[in-house]
Specification:
The structure holds two protein chains of two kinds.
Chain A: H1 11-60, E1 61-64, E2 67-70, H2 75-78, E3 88-94, E4 97-101, E5 116-123, E6 126-138, E7 143-153, H3 155-202, H4 221-269, H5 273-307, E8 312-315, H6 316-333, E9 337-341, E10 347-350, H7 352-369, E11 375-381, E12 387-391, H8 424-434, E13 438-443, E14 449-454
Parallel strand pairs in A: 9-11
Antiparallel strand pairs in A: 1-2, 3-4, 3-7, 5-6, 6-7, 8-10, 11-12, 12-14, 13-14
Helix pairs in contact in A: 1-3, 4-5, 5-8, 6-7, 7-8
Chain B: E1 2-6, H1 10-22, E2 26-30, H2 33-42, E3 47-51, E4 53-54, E5 57-58, H3 59-68, E6 75-79, H4 84-92, E7 97-100, H5 105-120, E8 127-129, E9 132-135, E10 140-143, E11 146-149, H6 152-163, H7 171-178, H8 189-201, E12 206-211, E13 215-220
Parallel strand pairs in B: 1-2, 1-3, 3-6, 6-7
Antiparallel strand pairs in B: 4-5, 8-9, 9-10, 10-11, 12-13
Helix pairs in contact in B: 2-3, 6-8
The chains are: A alpha+beta, B alpha/beta.
Chain lengths: 455, 221
């Protein structure tokens, strides 16, 4: 269906890829932001407890009798308890001298009475978070700066962060999956009208050049507008050439008709045998040329239509019946009886105009070649394939030429003086082939020709 | 019978009129739709012959107008087009039949007869001569009490003879009327049909006499 169309990527892929790509970036961004916030909040929590611990130690310090007395409560450390048994270190400095706790615990000396300072460091091979606070203690004869540092390993915090991270990752992946599904849905919804337009244009019959009537999304309107304009132009030029052909045929055939009528009238008045012969050959020549012109036009039309076959449900019996009625005056002129053999409706899918033209050509032939006062049978059958056979009681086909007759302009050697263009069987054969069938020519055992048009 | 011919080409119209009148019919000729409508309103016609392309419009316009007034007069379209779809649309519009130009007069006659038969069954113009009644549309011959159905060629010979009784028709003339120009038959075939007609006329007051080297004549006692 799309041979000869240059493809530059796919709208659907482009849409899907940009939607999914966007979703991936969003999911990753969300993961990192949530993780960073979680880290910050967890850190703040730990810092608060560390700060409270430091302060509770500082609060317990007092100066008595020239000594620093720090009797800090149990709660100062128990408040730091976690479910992963994080280790807690502490150090109490009086000015720069370690009073109690772990030596070497790095110190951050905050400014006095300016609250607490926090920081990260490594102690005993483990990363720790530490909080420090200083306080100026003034006794009777003593003035010291007491600095307390409490540090805690971060196992629990990291564990909590990992849990949060995992949950955020799962949530992000879920979000991503949902967006992928939505992306596919949104893409097909967006592409849908395009596909509908394609089907509605592709399904048109060969003669249907009417503008697209069904509503389309606004973005497609310019395309449909151009398409409609193109079809209008096409229709105009087609109808112009059709009109031209019709006009040309009219111009040629009307004078021919005049000549023929005059010739016929003259023939009735002329007595001399040689003049009569001349008039007769004149009429024959007129018939021959007009028939050839008509068949050529029909043939051109059939070639055109066969490329854009109309697909309609047709009852073959009805079609043949109608045709038989149309042709009965011609049959009557030669006292030929048209007999229709059919059991019931035979339904096929096809182009009624083409089929009518093809079968008409076959019946025309039978009427021309059958002897007068004979019977031409039109047999419509369903098995093995739907078919129409035209059987006459004439001389039949010349045996040696039977395969050549459907060729263009080919005529049987026994056609004698009967007027024909050699296109009738060609037309029928082309129509049959366009419908996926064929034309079979053979001679009846009791004499007479039998042409079968099958689907 | 009375015909209305609507055709803008004078040459062709004259030829058709001449031929039809020589067959004993009455023909009125209109060369545009306006006149044709007027004629068809005033006159009673058995049949209308209509050209498609006319100076003041399309023949289809006349058809629409004609059918809109519920006129049942059959219309046969003379068309120079040969596209099948065109023919179909003409029939859809209410034409009874069509012939493609240039046409064989015998074919036109046959189609007229068929259209008239479909329309009314019989003709209003039954010719009665002596004790024989001839219906050219039904193609029947009534001799006394028995009705005989004529074959087409017998009918066409008899139509000619009965329209001009006492006139001698040459074998050639009968032959030209009877056979199309590609029929490969000798003039002697006429004798077969004359013989059959004579058989049909046995017992009536009519008879066909042979005039040596001149032709045949319908006589009545």
């Amino acid at each position: 269906m799309i041979e000869g169309v240059k493809i530059s990527g796919s709208l659907r892929n482009r849409l899907t890829v940009s939607l999914i790509g966007g979703a991936a970036v969003l999911a990753l961004l969300m993961y990192f932001i949530v993780r960073a916030y979680a880290t910050q909040i967890a850190q703040q929590g730990q810092d608060n407890i560390l700060g409270a611990s430091v302060n509770s130690i500082l609060d317990a310090a007092n100066v008595s009798e020239g000594f620093i007395d720090v009797d800090f409560p149990y709660a100062s450390f128990s408040m730091l308890g976690t479910d992963t048994d994080d280790r807690v270190f502490y150090a109490i400095y009086q000015d720069d001298e370690l009073l109690s706790g772990y030596d070497g615990l790095a110190q951050i000396f905050p400014e006095v009475d300016k609250g607490s300072a926090y920081g990260n460091t490594t102690f005993k091979g483990a990363p720790v978070r530490l909080a420090s606070a200083s306080r100026m203690l003034v006794g009777a004869d003593l003035r010291v700066q007491l600095t307390v540092t409490v540090a805690q390993t971060q196992d629990s915090l990291l564990g909590a962060l990992n849990r949060i991270g995992r949950n955020v990752a799962i949530f992000g992946a879920g979000f991503f999956l949902l967006v992928v599904i939505l992306a596919f849905w949104a893409t097909s919804t967006a592409i849908g009208p395009l596909a509908q337009l394609t089907t509605s244009v592709a399904r048109r019959g060969p003669q249907d050049l009417s503008p697209v009537a069904s509503p389309v999304p606004r973005e497609m309107a310019p395309l449909v507008f151009s398409l409609n304009k193109l079809m209008a132009r096409l229709e105009y030029s087609l109808s112009r050439s059709e009109d031209f052909i019709a006009e040309a045929a009219h111009r040629v055939r009307t004078p021919l008709a005049t000549v023929r009528s005059h010739a016929e009238a003259t023939l009735l008045r002329v007595d001399k045998e040689e003049n009569r012969q001349a008039m007769r050959s004149m009429i024959r020549a007129i018939d021959e040329s007009s028939r050839a012109a008509g068949q050529l036009l029909d043939h051109a039309m059939i070639t055109f239509r066969a490329d854009n076959l109309d697909q309609k449900n047709i009852d073959l019996v009805e079609l043949v019946q109608d045709l038989a009625m149309r042709l009965s005056p011609i049959a009557e002129m030669r006292d030929i009886e048209l007999q229709l053999d059919a059991l019931g409706p035979v339904s096929v899918i096809g182009d009624a105009i083409l089929l009518q033209n093809a079968i008409r050509n076959l019946v025309d032939n039978a009427l021309k070649y059958a002897p007068s006062e004979s019977i031409v049978r039109l047999v419509v059958a369903t098995t093995p394939k739907p078919s129409i056979s035209v059987v006459d009681e004439g001389a039949g086909f010349p045996v040696g030429e039977i395969n050549l007759l459907p060729d263009r302009f080919a005529r049987g050697s026994n056609s004698g003086g009967i007027i024909g263009s050699g296109l009738g069987l060609t037309i029928a054969q082309e129509v049959a082939e366009a419908h996926g069938g064929g034309l079979t020519l053979n001679n009846h055992s009791r004499g007479g020709a039998c042409v079968t048009f099958s689907f | 019978m009375k015909f209305l011919l609507i055709e803008d080409n004078y040459e062709l119209a004259n030829a058709i009129c001449a031929r039809m009148r020589s067959d004993g019919h009455v023909v009125d000729h209109a060369d545009k739709i306006f006149d044709a409508i007027e004629y068809s309103q005033i006159g009673e016609y058995d049949l209308i012959l209509l050209d498609v392309m006319l100076p003041d419009g399309d023949g289809r316009e006349f058809l629409k107008h004609h059918r809109a007034r519920n006129r049942s007069t059959p219309v046969i379209v003379l068309t120079a087009r040969s596209q099948v779809s065109d023919r179909i649309s003409l029939l859809d519009l209410g034409a009874d039949d069509y012939v493609t130009k240039p046409f064989d007069h015998a074919e036109l006659e046959a189609r007229c007869r068929a259209a008239l038969r479909r329309n009314s069954g019989t003709s209003q113009s039954i010719t009665v001569l002596a004790d024989v009644a001839f219906d050219p549309v039904a193609g029947s011959l009534k001799v006394g009490d028995s009705t005989i159905k004529l074959r087409n060629k017998e009918l066409r010979i008899f139509e000619l003879l009965i329209n001009a009784p006492q006139q001698i028709f040459s074998k050639q003339k009968l032959f030209d009327r009877l056979f199309s120009y590609d029929d490969d038959v000798s003039e002697n075939a006429i004798e077969v049909y004359i013989g059959r007609l004579r058989k049909h006329l046995v017992g009536s007051q009519l008879s066909i006499s042979t005039h040596r080297s001149l032709g045949y004549r319908l006589d009545h006692d």
